[in-house]
UniProtKB/TrEMBL annotation:
This is Gfo/Idh/MocA family oxidoreductase. Keywords: Oxidoreductase. Residues 123-240 form the GFO/IDH/MocA-like oxidoreductase domain. It comes from Shinella lacus. InterPro entries: Gfo/Idh/MocA-like_OxRdtase_N, Gfo/Idh/MocA_oxidoreduct, GFO_IDH_MocA-like_dom, NAD(P)-bd_dom_sf.
Length: 321
């Protein structure tokens, strides 16, 4: 449902790679749906999701529509009792996201998110090594990434891009990754934006105290030249650092530092889209998952909104001597 991103094209291939067949392309623009169905060789075309979801062959829906259209498709799938895999975030704010999560819960369906950062092998390895005590007790987590703002991949050049929400979505992804890596919950936040009293600029830095007392610090910017992203878990015995994993151009590298020495940790390359589809299909039979579910997205959105609120508050200026 939705035809706007190159990620959709990757997911079509991933769905086929696990032995499933995409049956329908749904878009409110019939021309877009027609072109996409021809490109991806999908037979069914529709502008209304409801008839497609009544098709007895349909087992689940993948939603890759624009953010403000995701609610419509998720509710249609809930009404039809069909599980949903959706690009994140599922809504523009935590209130709507919480309502969607509740509707899906009442309908008895799963609402899972396509969160590429959770899927990457270096991040999954970091999580496992932290759980195994490889770096001792976690003390802090650092995420830093920056690059000039770029339009997301889009098949349709006439579609508007919501730049205003881009920094919020970046924070949502970072917060979700922090929860995934650490298994801890946000407890308190503080933040600074590049524009005083405004979180709506292109640069923000924030700190979050996690439920165990560890500190999570993040720097996110659209104003810098592109630099290699960093995701660092620092424990009382050592550190794990993932380099270049947040650029969307490969899985990056993972380094462990113990006793003053760096060691490159080998990680298994795998297709992140196929991994996501396989994990999603296993959800109905699995009691636990590493995937981001609707409730996880609600928490990430609420925390990102708290970060924005913290950035709006009055700050104490430092006087010159």
């Amino acid at each position: 449902m939705g035809t706007g991103t190159i990620a959709t094209e990757h997911m079509v291939a991933a769905i086929r790679s696990v032995g499933h067949q995409p049956l329908w392309v749904v878009s409110r623009n019939r021309q877009y749906a027609t072109h996409f169905s021809q490109d991806m060789q999908i037979a069914g075309i529709a502008v209304d999701a409801r008839p497609t979801l009544r098709d007895p062959r349909v087992q689940y829906a993948y939603v890759s529509a624009a953010r403000d259209r995701r609610k419509h498709y998720i509710l249609a799938a809930a009404a039809a009792r069909k599980h949903v895999l959706c690009d994140g975030p599922i809504a523009g704010n935590s209130r709507i996201a919480a309502n969607l999560a509740e509707e899906c819960r009442k309908a008895g369906i799963l609402l899972a998110l396509n969160q590429p950062f959770r899927t990457l092998s270096p991040h999954q390895t970091m999580r496992r090594l932290l759980q195994d005590g490889e770096i001792g007790t976690l003390q802090s987590l650092l995420i830093a990434r920056g690059a000039p703002f770029q339009l997301p991949p889009n098949r349709h050049i006439d579609e508007a891009v919501d730049r205003g929400g881009a920094l919020l979505e970046m924070s949502v992804d970072s917060i979700d990754l922090a929860r995934f890596l650490t298994g801890q919950e946000p407890a308190a936040v503080t933040a600074l934006s590049s524009v005083p009293a405004s979180p709506d600029g292109d640069q923000i830095s924030y700190a979050i105290r996690l439920s165990s007392g560890a500190l999570f610090q993040s720097y996110e910017s659209f104003t810098t030249a592109e630099f290699e992203s960093i995701v660092m878990l620092a424990g009382d015995r050592g550190t794990l650092t993932a380099h270049g994993t947040l650029s969307g151009r490969g899985s990056g590298a993972l380094v462990r530092r113990l006793n003053g020495r760096n060691e490159l940790i080998p990680v298994r390359e795998r297709d992140q889209h196929m991994t996501t589809i396989e994990a999603f299909l296993a959800l109905p039979q699995s009691s636990g998952t590493w995937m981001s579910l609707a409730e996880d997205n609600v928490i990430a959105l609420r925390t990102a909104e708290a970060v924005q609120a913290a950035a709006r508050r009055r700050h104490i200026s430092v006087s010159s001597p």
